[in-house]
Amino acid sequence: MCAALLAAGASAPAWAGRSGVVADDTVRALEPALAGEFALQAGKLDEAAKAYLDAARASNDAVLAERATRIALLAKDDRRAGESLALWRKLGGDGLAQSAADATLSLRRGDERAARRQLNAMLESGQEGAWQQVIGVLSVGARDPEQAARMLGRLLDDDRLPDQLQAWLAFGGLAQKLDQDALSQRIVDEVVRRFPGEPRVALLRASQLRESGKTDEARGVLAALDPALLLVPEFRMAVAAEYDALGDFQAASATLARGPQDDQTYALRASLLARAEDKTALTALYEELRRGGSKPDPARRLLLGRIAEFLKRHQEALDWYRGVPGGEPRWPAKLRAANVLHELDRDAEAYQALHDLQADAAAPEDARRDAYILEADLHNRDKDGDAELDAFARGLAAFPDDPDILYARALGWERRDDIARAEADFRKILVADPDSTAALNALGYTLADRTTRYQEALELIDRARAAEPDNAAIIDSYGWVLYRIGRKQEALTELRRAFSLQKDPEIASHVGEVLWVLGRKDEARRYFEEARKLDPDNRALKRALEKTGE
């Protein structure tokens, strides 16, 4: 956009005499548009929203008006969002997107009556993608999960949801994410009434029961499914995923075992059985696959090596990996072989294998790069910090400023509490790729969590939010920095929003810590327990428990 404006500005003198008004509009828009872009790159969302609105007014450009609206909503600048939206509507554009922005603004202002009317109008329009936009408004645009739940309930009261199973399943999933058991049950009952005999309804019912803590009932619903349905690959995968969510890994694997098999289903079954620590079933699967392992199928031999690793039959795993004859699986097999050698305490061979791969001109660049990252990881496991740093240094000498190596090294510096060096590596990534949301978020979170440079952290995270406003990890970082600067209630809202989007142990730990500080200790304990179920060794959970004395 800036390049186009610059090109227009450069040509203005040649035709200004004939089209002076157009030229003047372009020139007047150039400065605020550039200012908006620079402000956005600096993470100053309020300044960016103002500048983009100025540019849109100067140029009468609907795209700039839309950008100003979205940035103002992110900045929680309701007044400017309203002005930008009014201009955007005047200039034309995507009416559905404008309605979604209008409803979001109404929710932000607390005008739920207007939001209800606007969301209903979107649903009644029948436009493609309308109900998905409504879900987006409720998921991300609402001030808090309670408001989103109220609005969803009112939409059900108004009976405006389209008569499409996929839409009802999606709204049911939203109710579950919002931890609204009664609302979820209401949707399930309505889906059963509207779509009798539809097997996917049973999956929604099982999911709703699981979210309500009625795991035995959920298993009963899944067990009652017609076995013939499991011969449909997509449905079989969905049922297995529900068993997985229930923590019943054996049942998930048994579900996947029905019907035709391929390397993907075999790999998923092996992973599930490994998580269940069911060595008997995993061994049976291994022996089943092993009977065909004499054929030189690279993918199958790679899979057999992975299963042998799960079973801790490391020598067999090494033989399978070394037996991969060629093709794309050859390179991950070499990496896995080095890892197995390390597990066998044959460290010198492991490191030599990685050095050979690093020097192999025939290997693809990503395999050679990953060999440096794996070598550093193995040295970290050996608690040899100097060798770990040397591996990173050699990797960066071979692949200067490679973002994956820099990112891995930055995480290593953070583990050592060397925040200055971690920051330096994250910033090197951003020099090459200023829009890297992963680096923006990681650096912003690190500064928020490990320093008192909260304003800097907020600006970095805001840059990431502007690029990916629906990203749960970024919303979590945003909530965490709000907590660190003392805006605890706002922080809780954002952190709970993040957890509704992604059930993650670190996010759950953050929600629990903020609830604890707010004096809501019973609720905090519930989130700590959620985090324990997801990952009892999570670093954020351990820190939160240490702070709270739990």
TrEMBL record:
InterPro entries: CellSynth/LPSAsmb/PSIAsmb (IPR051012), TPR-like_helical_dom_sf (IPR011990), TPR_rpt (IPR019734)
Keyword Signal applies: yes
Signal peptide limits: 1-16
Sequence intervals crossing the membrane: none
Coiled coil ranges: none
Keywords: Repeat, Signal, TPR repeat
Name of one Pfam family that matches: TPR_15
TPR-type repeats, residues: 505-538
SUPFAM superfamilies according to UniProt: TPR-like
PROSITE patterns: TPR
Entry keyword Signal: yes
SMART domains the UniProt entry points to: TPR (SM00028)
Name assigned to this protein: Tetratricopeptide repeat protein
